Amino acid sequence: MQDTLEILRKEWIALDAGTQSAGHHFHSFIFSTIRNNTPELRTVILRTVDETSSSLYFHTDLRSKKIIDIEKNNSVSALFYDSARRIQLRIQGLAFIESNNDYTKKVWRLMRDESKLCYMGPFAPSSAIESFLPNLPDNPLEKINQEDDKLGYSRFSRVKIVLKTLDWLQLHHKGHKRLQFKFEDEISSKWIAS
Questions:
Q1: What is the pLDDT of residues 123-132, one digit of tens each?
Q2: Alpha helical stretches, state H, the chain
Q3: What is the DSSP letter of 124?
Q4: For site-directed labelling of 194, which of 1, 49, 100, 153 has its Cα 20 to 30 A away?
């Protein structure tokens, strides 16, 4: 039987590949928080993976409701699915919000201007509006100035998910394989029924 830590290592490599290619199955994932005792799901983009600290990162607007959810209850879940390999990763972890620090400044400086625009819009994500209106700054991209950039950065954050568990499932017609990894002082694993 394949070594379980070898399986986990392959998934860290796949997750890292998801940060580098928009076409990779792990580039986007479902992120879940709890709001009023109800799960709230949305798709986010995987930006960074840190195997050493068993952490994943994505970017978001500080005005978004997911930030409020995390501040109230930082227990979160994430779901990845690779249809080519028929592998599902279900993650439970703790989320932490990072903003206005040396690392977020570096990320912001390296971002494409087009990517920064969504942080400059006048409306907080999920705000009610009277009719459709693009949530973009008044200035077009070519006229974005230093004040616009400063405003966008003031709303920019990255969310760190520290893994507590990872449920690995490989679908197969001869029998699904399923492993559960726990991330504590040491990483432990056990095979479980699928």
A1: 999 999 999 9
A2: 4-20, 65-72, 102-110, 113-116, 146-155
A3: P
A4: 49
Name the CATH topology of 4-122+136-191: Pnp Oxidase; Chain A (2.30.110)
- Give the Cα separation of 62 and 156 in Å (integer): 6
Q: How far apart are CA 99 and CA 145, in angstroms?
A: 21
110: nearest Cα among 62, 78, 158:
158
- Does pTM top 0.90 for this prediction? yes
C-alpha torsion angle, residues 134, 139, 144, 150 (rounded to 10): -70
Half-sphere exposure for 161 (CA within 13 Å, toward CB): 31
